[in-house]
Fold these 2 entries.
Entry 1:
Amino acid sequence: MAFSTLNADQLRGDLERLAREQGISQWDLGASCSTDTSVQVDRGEAKQMKGAQRSAITVRVWNSDGLVGITSTSDLSESGLARALGGARDASAYGNAADTPAFSPLATAPLHPREQRLHDPQTILQLLDTLKDAERQLLSRHGAINTVPYNGLAQRSSERLYLNSAGANRHEALTTASLYLYARAEEAGRKPRSGGAVRLAHGAGELDIAGCIDEAAERTISHLDYAPITTGHYTCVFSPEAFLDLIGAFSSLFNARAVLDGVSLSNRESIGQKLAVPFLNIHDNGLHPGNIGASSFDGEGTPTARLSLVEGGVLRHFLHSEATARAFGVSPTGHAGMGAKVSVGPDYFEVGPAGDGAGGCGQLGLDLNRSSEPIVLIDSLSALHAGVKASQGAFSLPFDGWLIQGGERRSVEAATVAGDIRTVLNNLVGFEGQPRVTPDGVCPHVWVQGLSITGEA
Amino acid sequence: MTSTIPSSLLECSTRLESLLAAGRGAGADLVEVFLERTDHLGLLAEQDTLTSVSPAFGIGAGIRVFLGSRDGFVSTNDLSDATLFRALDQALGMLGLQRNGAASPRFEGLQPLRDFAGDKGDWLQRCPLLQEASSRLLEGTDLLQRHGRHLQVRRGSYARDWQEVLVAASDGTHAHDIRLHQSLGLNVLAADGDHRASLGRRYGTTDQPDELRLWDADAAARDVCDSAGTMLYADYVEAGQMPAVLANRFGGVIFHEACGHLLETTQVERGTTPFAEQVGQPIAHQAVTAIDEGLSSGAFGSLSMDDEGMEPQRTVLIENGVLQGFLSDRAGELRTGHPRTGSGRRQNHGFAAASRMRNTYIAAGPHSPEQLIASVDRGLYCKSMGGGSVGPTGQFNFAVEEGYLIENGALTRPVKGATLIGEAKEVMPRISMCANDLELAAGFCGSVSGSIFVTVGQPHIKVDSITVGGR
């Protein structure tokens, strides 16, 4: 059920009039609204069903001294807008004169075309039936799988827009759906084990439910036979999801805002310098078809675009907002949020071998089942919020994975992997398999030598 | 477009009665409405400049309908009658119910208001204005500069979260409160050649409008700078199994992650706690008594009422190692039988309340901190903890922000990069000594009902053996 939608023309009209009344000549606004429905189940019964309608706006105002203030609210009524404008004007008295955002010069540039069909929502009872069936199938896959304690099927219809007093007028609508299944399995006399899978799509009817069940079952069952691992240094193979998580946790390497703030391992002179092995490429591509929920413009109205970050192991570009781009003398890249101090962040990583062969391609076609040495396959990383020191380059993270030796694989009981991101990027051995499309990016399996693993053996 | 924010949520009580009556008339066992009004201010100071001022305000409603053990929940930030009734219809529809238009004899009206807001009406006005708040924050970053060495980045942050809530339910529950949370953070990045250390401290209080004025910025800055100076040249910890002594205050995150979450009835419902059937049985070393309460004056996790309108209690979770009970909310009581403890909490109207921790700590023991350290031949002293988490099978982990080796019963050199991991069932019996210096620390906890204000705490404790991840 749709509660409300954004009316860009009405919002613009209201804002122009209210701004005039308050003596404000320069402003911009980001707005969003969404309608969500979701279900969770527990052993064949509905556990919780949820619906939500959300709306939010953020208004920025430039005062007569050119300083910027901001206010956010969920009240999109006329009085809410008036209060937000007044709040932003008051806050502008405390704007930072040394780093004042401006309108993006690309806020009216053409957007890159995207194919993203909008889907009608399913009823919540349809979602419930689908999830109950998925849970039933997963529980039937193995006698040890006794519950699916974390599960959910959700769908969202959303809109967002960006307006500014110079005439920018961005608007887009989007539908998304997600399914996650996280099973728990336990055998007599053994510790409980768990594993899961996630799928995203543009609509609930497009979700790869069978694939999600298969993957959750396979992962969970594969952890039933576990053993502690001996502490030491190992060659590790990161799953695409795990390597993308690691790159994402250290994305301040590519972030111009972090560089300017002095919290990145990179600095202004890092562009053109070697960051990784010569056979590594990293791009950010919010427009990739696998990026479900992608936006065609950022918080400042700049079009989303593919950007080369690392080519042949060399750092090529930073992610930029309008303000950071101005500081570096380049164009905004479409990676800005919206704020008095504008944040910058990645959209969707593409990681893989350098295409031109410059500097070699590493060992493509690696096969961990044929490796003679013990290999640790890291399937997923945990606690990135706690175990990553991005400004130091260090990480120490719990993981789920397997020890592979002589062609046999056995789940690793509680263990951590630790290292330094710069060392990781320079100790890549190569890639295995084809790049896989995941919710966070595209990446093949990645081999890294010499990582420290701590186990209980 | 949404409705205008009311000047007080108390204006809404009469309207809510018709909503509750309609829900009961449709056949719901219970209907609950949670309304909120919020006012937020966030400030960030970097080096000697205020770089971000972020005010925000909002409204919202969450409507929850129970039928048997099932429930449907719908949230909106439009408080108009039409939208609230649409939300009710959607929640009823999730349970196969439909409004029939008839007045319900099953709803006897709201009870007299229990107004916990009392004298809190002027709290927002009593908080520091922007000018004063920004000055205090810049004083903090200036003190960092004065006390620190090799500081590449100095940051101070301040957040003020004001919230008015009204809870009304078809069982007559009718309660109103105003809450005020303020938090302050100081963070530094120290760098000298290839050596780097990033450290921070957070301070937070509830219901104390003068918090920022009373803040001891000098002591806070000295504390952060001392730690950063020590950790700048620290070596990476050597990984392995070893005994550990965890300092008081934020060291309490180990109990929060390793055990506290597993004593919430949401975990009993999911079947993800190993302690579900162990009330009355030993689950920890007899040295351990653990408590969760919402009562400590000014503590970050304290409440006048929970988000279901119930006054908080002092809940003894573990006494001398024996499990005493669980933290429970309305749904938890319904589905597990554990009585409500005033622990129904949510980040905002967009989440259904769930059983969550408040101020959670291990009680003080008989020893001095020095006795704990002296009892270890070779191990790790964790002076300051980072964040952590617990997984679906009870595996927990947390990062050590400031650590020292213990050698022959004494602290020696600083070490960095340590992560502690383990399982609750295994580590709780290994907490063998508790010191006499219980202190609490403010934090945030993210879980099923969003991110909430909590306190963790403990005295110094000794864990006989734990896995220390490192290099």
Entry 2:
Amino acid sequence: MNWKKAATILLGCALAGAVLVGCGGQQAAQKDNNQDGKNIVKVGLLTRQNLSEDKLNSLLKEKESSGQAMIVTYYDNLSAMQMALDAGNIQSMRIYKSVASYLTDRNNNLVVKEVADHPMDEFCFGVRKEDEKLQADLNRVIADMKADGTLEKLSKEYVTALKKGEEPPAVTLPFQPGDVPLRIAVTGDLPPLDLVKADGSAAGFNTAILAEIGKRLRCSIEVVQVASGGRAATLTSKKADVVFWTVVPVEKKANNEAVGIKGLFMPRDADVPEGMALTDSYFSDEVVDVAKK
Amino acid sequence: MDTIYQIFIANGAFATICKGLLVTVEISLAALVLGTLLGAVLCFFRMGKNRPMRFLTAGYIALVRGCPVLMLLMLLFYGVLAQSGLAPIVVAILAFALHTAAHVAELFRSSIMATDFGQVEAARTLGFSRIQAFRLVTLPQMMHIARPVYQSTIVNLIQWTSVVGYVTITDLTRVIYNTASRTMQPMITILGGMIIYIAISYCVYGIFAWLEWRDKREVAE
């Protein structure tokens, strides 16, 4: 009798689920795709801290070409975005090419699609505005590393020359007991640029850059791990001295105005919170779409 | 099977997950002890005769219970205690203890209110002191009434700690996210993480079930 009761309840739940999915899931998604006769593309993007999802979508709406509209949904981290893609909440995720390669190497169901007239995002360091000396030091080291080919060598070793399924090698960060270390916040959310290895140690291209900076500035480096959404607060509250950041480049003629970015119409300071200053960029990467095959 | 091995065990992943788990348990346990003690003090003032203290504690409880624990944590870590030099884990324990205390205070209050005050009056008539009446009459009944909700409070507290990644602490959730990003297998990894959290919760349920079983056995004897 109890088994019968349990089976009836389970069947009822399954039926209710099926009805709910039927009402709000697939059909609603199809309806979205055909609103106003336009093909709406739902794209996932990592959260921009200085530009709300609504604002970005309104900017995109202003600039959209006829016949194709894009709706952007923000995700705090890559895992959440990947699950949204798997669940069909978004049709593609717009991420960096290096990260996309790392992802598709490990997931055969996904494919990289080039974004037409794609923008190149720049990677740089974020420091507190008042830390002008640190900003200047970092800029100097970045310029030196660019000039002597170190940046190119590291990007090859840790990003472009990675074999399929291979993780970037571990890096030993300079640390002298008694030193006041330069505390750098990492998220571990963006492999192979920023990841945490199985043994819990920070690794990736960004970490390799850190090790080089530590050597050149002759200072100890301490890695502080924080969730992506907490980076700005970590910096401004002096829990870390440097954070990794990306900036959206604008076309030269746009002169840093709010529109005119290739592909995505996003202001350059879309992800730069108040009180933060950015260094020169040390790396740039294409932005691509990752979608299901 | 190989995927699961690669995600959760290979290259020291298991040890890293265990470290994360230990951090979660440490924060939860310390916050629970501190929060329960503070909650008892709050409850004492909330039910006391001192009117200003009663209002003050009522205000504190309303404020903290209505505030998401992540915001309280970030407010303490990045604001109020930013320059204190306290370790992130200490700030986290403090934040969760403050939050738990508000819930525990209300839990204790409702449990005391659910006991029969006439029994305390009877005990006092029989010559019990106030403390004796509380310890021997109210407390055992109150603990019995509070137990199921207190158990839920503990499980909730363990789940609340999953936000400590925002304040530079690498707990179980953070380790799971790191693993998901590294392996690019978020579904399996998060499912694994969920199973670990459920297992911790069932340990808590198990302890309370054992306590209940022990009580019943004592009554039967």
